[in-house]
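Appendix C reproduces, verbatim, an entry submitted by the partner laboratory led by Prof. M.T., so that reviewers can inspect both the input and the predicted structure.
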Amino acid sequence: MTVDNRERFICFSSIKVSEPIIKKKTVKSTITITDASNNKSAFELMVKYEEETDQLQLPLLRIAMSIPLLDYGLFTRRFILDYPLSKSDIDLLKNLNLIFGRDIFVNKIMKKDNKYILPGFSIREEEVISDDAEAKTMIQTRCVTNDAKLSDDMNDNRCCILSSGGKDSLLTYGLLKEIGADVYPLYVNESGGHWRTALTAYRYHDKHESNTYRIWTNVDRFCTFMLDHLRFIRQDHRRIRDNTYPIRLCIFPFYIFISLPVLIKKEIGNILLGNEFDDIRNPVYTHGIQHYYGIYDQTQMFDELMNTWYKKRIGSLKQWSAIRGITGLVEERILFSRYKHLGLLQRSCHSCHIKKEEVIPCGSCSKCRGVLLFLLANRINPLLINYKQEHIRRIQRDIKEKRLDDLKLDDDEKNKCLHLIKQNTNNEDADNVKHVTQIHVDERYCDPSMIPERFRDKILNILEEYTDGYCILEKNKWVTIKQHREKNSTTPSPCVKHP
């Protein structure tokens, strides 16, 4: 891609964020975008808490209000953050800006089937060089301060789970409750229709779990506002229906930073994202550009980056996942076998709707179809979570006719599901891929030692009941190992080392 082509994607001379204003339970910042012709437009980004927030949380809220800008680093010359930030805060923003810029370039801009991008902005792959994906945005702050601990008095038995109503967070909740952790389901309620997905689980937790907490934000409306001002996006983008966002990728960092004031106030020492296993054997470079298939903030690398920042700013807080070593197929197995009351709350769908106060999944989006495949492979009746017979018949027909290309699943996981379904149907072409029902162990991508010692053995003991042992990555293949750890030991055996 030539320099002239890169310039075509620059939409803003600057994006400016004002100092957050705290008024009781509400926090507001004004985000002002300025285009190349010096035309300005503004959006008021808001976050509402269930309890009053004080000025002591301002450093966290400043970072939170900066995070949504990171989706637009490729398209902006300057981010103007009109407040002080510490050196570690700025370093974190710069790192995330580069990472998300590369991911957005490869998985959104270069993506040929991105329905939202105008035809005139298509990219010829043979012209792409690695430098094209580097977000060169200047990050300007009012001043740089020294790092100082915002808190270091956290309870290591308290666990906040970023909750969405999907299988990941529900299973994580069930595991931690069973092993005696003090669990806080925390829901981020975006202002748009995505809240419908979380509504069933939130109503249950709000009624039965006193630690349940909800934060409201209009960040989704900010993303729509930005689409209105990206000149390479179709003006009718609101009418397009797709299984993915047009540009937005930097989602969990914003959720985390608006949650941190709650964690500090309640002295919660762990924050968990319900991130399952993703097979990492495929190349993570495209035209020399390192990327993460658009899921960087669901990886162990992101947890490690955040834990490095926590050590400098919040001391004893830890970020991790209890289920990173297991697949979605195994998740559904455990959820409905061990925590069925939680499994019944699951709504994993891109566009749920409400009928007679019941949340109904669409049954057609890629997320729904993946869940349907998992359920059928585990011999779980999809009607239990409000899927309809027509949804079941459609996926069964597509299995028979081999029309599952729209599923965003690793091939091995898909084939394992088909093998299990084959035991009830006549699908003779499905492969049995053993590692899919094992616990994956890898130093870089799914390391059990990331789980704090006080929880590790108890969680692994449960997972072992529903899996077929452990596997490690050797020469790009998942290989079964006899035993990953000594029983009743909190020290796992060494993970595979990589250069």
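The CA atoms of residues 67 and 254 lie 6 Å apart. Additional entries are available on request from the coordinating office.
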